[in-house]
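#lab-general

N.A. 3:47 PM
ok so I finally got the sequence cleaned up, no stray characters, all 272 residues accounted for. can someone with queue access submit it? mine expired

B.Y. 3:52 PM
send it over

N.A. 3:53 PM
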Amino acid sequence: MDGLLIDSEDRYTICTNAILHEYGRPSLPWSIKAQLQGRPGPEAGKIFHDWAQLPISIEEFMAKQSKLQQEHFPHCKPLPGVERLIQRLKKMEKGEGKSGRKVHMAVATSSHVRNYRIKTENLTELFGLFPKRQIVLGDDTRIGKGRGKPLPDIYLLALKTINDSLREQGSESEITPEECLVFEDSVPGVEAGRRAGMRVVWAPHPGLREQYEEKEKEVLAGRMGEHKEDEANKAGADGVVQTSGNVGELDDGWAEMLITLEDFDFEKYGID
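B.Y. 4:20 PM
back already:
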């Protein structure tokens, strides 16, 4: 969602830089921001604070950050191409496309409930197009501790919410991961989508795109090494059987990069 559907990534940067500058620290570079995108709060927080080395506690930082976010997040706006994309997918969800075939949508974001509400409270017309039960947030208790992106759990859970609805309606067959298309802006998110066995469209921020120049093929295959197997072993210590999934192969045709969602080729994916 952040940096893909709405311009909240730039607002995150504004808030973070305000605190960094208050303590004489440099602005957040993309080399660090790239590691934060798409990750759950605790993991992203550790990466940031290890780099920032601010002379205040994490609690003080979070209080300052929360105050700034409450000022900036209500002003979030949809990114180019987003409204057209979601409206067209919603039309197909209702079976109103030329072909009559249906497409089902879900949101899978690392944002927690509080921030999600602040970011979307003035965008109800847009986010109201998503079925409420098919909006999966980063603090959803069904996602195991330490199982956020780049692990596939959040996307597999989003798919489960769709299939749960389809089973209740009894009118359509359940959807497999191979039939899903993930839209992502973050590198850990691309890896999560690939590990979930889904196709991926990567639409990165210009700053992130520059950071990964000449590494695009590795990103699209989910092969940037964002996931560490030892982290997964710790996360699975509660005895719950969980999968890390598998990354893709270079140039396997299961992922593509777009400069903006305005460039999305509906026909290529059978969307009319």
